[in-house]
Here is the input.
Amino acid sequence: MHTLIFCLSSDIVGGALYNLLFHQGERNLRVVTDTDLAFASWLHEAGSDGKFFTRIHLRDGFIIEPAMIKNVVHRIPYFQLVHFINPVDRSYAEMEMYALYISFLRSVKEKVVDGMHTRHINNTDNALFFYAMAVKAGLEVLENTFTSSPRWQQPKALTAVSPRKKTMVAWHKRTRHLVWENKPVMYNEPFTSIVKLEVVGKKFFSGIGIPEKMQAQVNLFSSLIGRTVYEISLAEVNKTYKLYAVNTRPPVLSEPALEAFSLLLTSKNKN
Amino acid sequence: MLLFMGIPSESPLEMAILSAEKAGIPYLVLDQRALHHCNLAIGFVNNRFSATLQMNDTDYDLEKFSGIYFRTMDYLAMPHADPQSLRYIGADSVQKSGLLHQQLLYWMDITAVRILNAPWTMSSNISKPFQAQLIKEAGLKIPPTCITTDSGALRQFQQMYPALIYKSVSSVRSIVKELQPADEGILHKIQYLATQFQQKLTGTNIRVHVVGDVLFATRIESDVTDYRYAGRENKTAALTVFRLPKKIEKACFQLSESLGLTLCGIDLFLTDENEYYCFEVNPSPGYSYYQQHTGQDISGAIARWLYYGTAK
Here is the structure.
């Protein structure tokens, strides 16, 4: 029974997690890169019962089948199949490869950290979704406004209100095509610093102490976004911390966070 | 008020707009080709969310629309974004249009306004076998499927299911073709990219459109494997209104709900053995083709569901 770490060839977290688990004595481990999968022999099959069975035969002879999988760490957001020379073919092949990969993950979803939910398919992190869920979880959100029109700017730069005076409207009609209008901007509340908070299950790693109340809020936030291992950027405003951004696939993790991640996997193994 | 987003002359959108007009439902049309003339403000202030669209010098609180039907195309694929096109709107406007498209899609993922359909729910269609697993969980049968790079595995599959079709694995549109003996010579090419094969079933295509709490079933009689392209083979497809068994109707509603796709086009197949299979679910169905041939009021149902919360 193996722990499989699916990641890009260049993925630091995937490699570091492998090293850590290996040094902890775990031997049934495998890093499977996007390139490994691209050049593997695949069988993803459903018979009359509609249940999918998968066999992935890697180039070095390693065979992945559902029965040999304990855990799956999924960190491949896309495939780059540069060996398809024609750009149109490449684009098609990359979409096909990703479609196959996520279907395989779905078929072993109970073994995948965070499962494989439809919401996780599109890898674009929607900041508005995170803000909305943070508000639901009771977390403070850094005030922000995306606006595409300078005439919506107010002195404080955060409230989106359009002037209603007739003269202004007439003037705007004349000037609507001006280039200066075409500068969409995201405004944020001013902050003094950004602090990273790594979340691994119910453990938190940060340069600041996270109050108990906030821990409970982050736990609720994790369940609302359906993520176990991710990173929050907190913005400091008047000595309080507000959610600024979320990265569901952080490019690096601190050593304690990695250890917690490995513990998460090994404790899951014991179950 | 309803908001229709996309290209207003595109048939499904046009028909829904006409239905709203006929029903006396107030509406606003946002032509995505002119999105760079609009403005948008979306944000969180004091943990409160607001979203405002400015169009023709009028501000619309997006959260106050009763429903939104969107069929936006990829804005980068439109002539307006192509520097070689006479309709090119310029780099700044293309960038602005792109950001506004993106923000609107993000907003539609979090709003409580009725949307057909929330963008994230459409993702299951990115992978046909991924979606097939959800279809099976909703209680419908899926055809035996083999996705492989291995021609040996394919031959084993073919021993069990001699007649096969093949098609794309992803949402990239492909013409469904039957695997013919003449294809033997090119089968080795699957080693480069996994290809999806399915048992070729014999029977009749049934297209089901679910719109919230109503459902429209259409029977399609055609001699070709992929009836959508019958014209290309100088063949025809005859479409008629069809009545589904209650059990299958229930499964279709359940599937629509479990996928989060309040509006969807479900491709069913009724075999000669009187069994129902589901091929896939289209999250943004081009229903107009079916409505034009059968007179089923799908566009009216869309307008009603968006405005009243029921399509009945």
In short: The first strand of chain B starts at residue 2 and ends at 6. The mean pLDDT of chain B is 92. Residues 91-108 of chain B form the longest helix (18 residues).
